[in-house]
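User: tokens in, sequence out, please.
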């Protein structure tokens, strides 16, 4: 069926409608400014009339005649005086303007609860921002909090701080991470727990800005992201943290989101990735997301140490070389990956020496996804075999030149089992799930500028690429499509990203679901008879 074109008013009239609304709003504002004196006088006349009626109602009945006589005498005297009526009119208009003027003072400070909260926060910061021999301290017990906070604070509807700027003394050691952490901990505790705070230290002007961060969206699912070859989307972060946006499908709407882009390949400074988290934190989800993105331009090799079968939907797809779960298969697969890396290096070197371009099989990226290598290492040690991580030395060391990317994911309790080659060559790091600041600092190499919260959704964490800043991260929802708890929308989204046709197992399942169940009565009756004979 052909698509019907939109009406012309919807195609070309949106700009004129918007322009008309702006003109009407501007005209209304100008009219309000012009008629403001008349509005003020009218309001004053109404207030004066109301006050007169109240005065007349409060006057006793036996005295109302005297009041009427006095009013009539005043009116007659004014009428006989030259320019009396004009002067009376001017006087009434002036009284009405004075009475109608809004004299309610603008609220410039916090209420009592807000002032008490600011004072408590000020007193809590005194031990950290003061010394005994300071002649004019900014922070002192019983001091004025307005000198340090000023008016740069914002409260939410519940009366809790959402933004606060603090002027601290110049002698405070703002370059010491420990001193910073103590101040941030006090601000976090006094401003309300359960929220994520961002702290921006301006060492040049001795100012600290604390803001409450909004929760990252968890409704973005797996999809085709607008990226160049060699780029992978780890997740999404705050809008002001990265200078780039990509269009994403968020539910039923399309909007721009701020991605955390990880660049791989020959020109990448951090060609390999290490992921850590607690059980259920979303490390496997991130590996599935990276596998779907890698299959657009390269080949994928998956080694699953947990043995849960959460990568079974990748088996048999175009570009998926292997999905191994056992120790023997993992060793043989990783041994082949090391040999393939060496072959690619030799082929690329020969091509450069002869002046020819690199072969297509060398330029095609190869991704090695290794989930839970610590489990495989324990199994190998118990069986007296080689640790599979030792076979990653060649891909990790020469992977960038050979077009090989290694992604390793493990839980916090298995990080001690990782080899030195994995730690040294995976400077792109992602930590997911609930973790305190010490764990995040030990894994990423620096302390984040935000306060982690104890309860986070799956796929929520931090990312740091090399020596860059620590970014908040929310991984796109990429569940196992064969899991019964996966919604139909997410299942179709993941399966729609897989290249090639469906495997034989999936085709058989779909065919069995679509065909009606047939009952063979003859066989059911004949089988017992044959048994009796």
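Assistant: Sequence out:
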């Amino acid at each position: 069926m052909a698509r019907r074109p939109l009406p012309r008013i919807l195609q070309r009239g949106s700009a004129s409608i918007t322009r008309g609304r702006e003109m009407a709003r501007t005209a209304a504002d100008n009219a309000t400014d012009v008629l403001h004196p008349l509005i003020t006088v009218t309001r004053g006349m109404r207030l004066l009339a109301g006050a007169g009626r109240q005065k007349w109602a409060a006057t006793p009945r036996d005295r109302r005649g005297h009041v009427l006589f006095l009013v009539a005498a005043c009116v007659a005297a004014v009428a006989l005086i030259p320019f009396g009526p004009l002067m009376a009119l001017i006087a009434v208009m002036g009284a009405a303007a004075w009475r109608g003027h809004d004299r309610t003072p603008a609220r410039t400070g916090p209420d009592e609860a807000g002032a008490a909260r600011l004072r408590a926060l000020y007193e809590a910061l005194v031990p950290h921002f003061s010394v005994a021999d300071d002649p004019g301290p900014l922070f002192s017990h019983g001091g004025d909090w307005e000198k340090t906070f000023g008016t740069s604070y914002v409260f939410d509807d519940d009366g809790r701080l959402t933004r606060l700027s603090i002027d601290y003394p110049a002698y405070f050691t703002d370059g010491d991470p420990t001193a910073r952490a103590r101040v941030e901990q006090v601000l976090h505790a006094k401003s309300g727990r359960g929220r994520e705070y961002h702290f921006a230290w301006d060492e040049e002007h001795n100012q600290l800005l604390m803001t409450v961060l909004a929760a990252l969206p968890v409704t973005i699912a797996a999809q085709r992201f607008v990226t160049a070859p060699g780029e992978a989307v780890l997740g999404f972060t705050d809008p002001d943290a990265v200078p780039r946006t990509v269009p994403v499908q968020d539910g039923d709407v399309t909007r721009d989101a701020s991605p955390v882009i990880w660049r791989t390949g020959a020109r990448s400074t951090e060609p390999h990735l290490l992921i850590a988290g607690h059980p259920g934190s979303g490390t496997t989800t991130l590996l599935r997301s990276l596998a779907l993105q890698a299959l657009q331009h390269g080949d994928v090799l998956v080694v699953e140490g947990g043995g849960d079968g959460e990568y079974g939907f990748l088996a048999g797809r175009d570009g998926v070389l292997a999905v191994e779960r056992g120790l023997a298969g993992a060793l043989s697969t990783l041994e082949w990956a090391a040999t393939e890396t060496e072959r690619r290096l030799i082929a690329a070197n020969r091509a450069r020496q002869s002046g020819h371009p690199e072969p297509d099989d060398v330029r095609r990226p190869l991704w090695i996804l290794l989930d839970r290598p610590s489990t495989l290492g324990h199994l190998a040690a118990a069986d007296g075999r080689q640790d599979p991580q030792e076979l990653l030395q060649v891909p990790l060391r020469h992977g960038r030149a050979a077009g090989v990317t290694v992604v390793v994911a493990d839980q916090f309790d298995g990080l001690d089992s990782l080899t030195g080659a994995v730690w040294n060559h995976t400077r792109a790091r992602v930590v997911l799930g609930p973790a305190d600041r010490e764990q995040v600092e030990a894994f990423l190499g620096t302390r984040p500028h935000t306060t982690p919260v104890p309860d986070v959704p799956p796929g929520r964490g931090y990312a740091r690429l090399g020596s860059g800043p620590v970014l908040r991260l929310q991984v796109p929802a990429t569940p196992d499509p064969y899991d019964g708890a996966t919604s139909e929308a997410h299942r179709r989204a993941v399966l729609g990203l897989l290249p090639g046709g469906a495997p034989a197992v999936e085709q058989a399942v779909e065919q069995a679901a679509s065909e009606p169940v047939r009952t063979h009565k003859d066989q059911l009756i004949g089988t017992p008879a044959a048994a009796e004979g």
